Amino acid sequence: MAESVKMFTVNIVTPDGVVYDHHATLLVACAVDGDLGIMANHEPIIAPLAIGEVRVKRTDNPDHQDAIAINGGFLEVNDNVASIVADSAERARDIDVSRAEHARERAQQEIKAAEARHDIDEVNRAQVALNRAINRINVSKRQR
Where would one find coiled-coil regions in this protein (predicted)? Predict the structure, then answer.
C-alpha cells in the first residue's frame, strides 16, 4: 500500500491579488522572531512576517522549492491551510533583477545622503527599501 503524502495548501495574497496558491509538504517563512517551518496538520498559528524569503516544497515537484520574496505581512495556519497576507510578494521567476539592483543602489545613495543630513527617519526608511531590494535579489538567485 502506498503511503499517502501529507499535504496542505499554501496561498499568498497581496493587495494586488493572489500571488501563490499550491499544495505543499513544507513551508518555511521568515517571521519577526525567526524562521517558521510549517507542515501538514500544524497547530493553528498567526505570526507577523519580516522582510524575507518564503520557501515552499510543493507536492507536484518534491525535488524543487519555490521561493517567494515577501515584504512583511502575516502568516495564518489553520485547518491545513497556510495563508500569507503580505504588503507585496514576488515569486523568484517574476523578479526583475535589474530593477531590484537599481532599487538597491538608490537606497544605498539615500542612506548616505540621509546620514549626512543626520535624518534618522530617512535613514530608517531607506534601510527598509535596501532590505527589500536585497531580499528580492537573493530570492531571484533561487530560480532554477
Answer: 97-126
CA 132 distance to own-chain centroid:
10
Whether residue 1 is contained in a domain is answered as no
Question: Which residue is listed with cell 515569486?
Answer: 91
The series of mean pLDDT values per 10 residues for the chain, 144 residues long, is: 72 95 95 94 96 94 90 95 96 94 96 92 94 94 68
Q: How far apart are the first and last CA of the chain?
A: 34
User: Is the domain of 35 the same as that of 77?
Assistant: yes
What is the reported pTM?
0.87
CA pair distance 46, 66, nearest whole angstrom: 22
Cβ-based neighbour number of residue 123 at 10 Å = 16
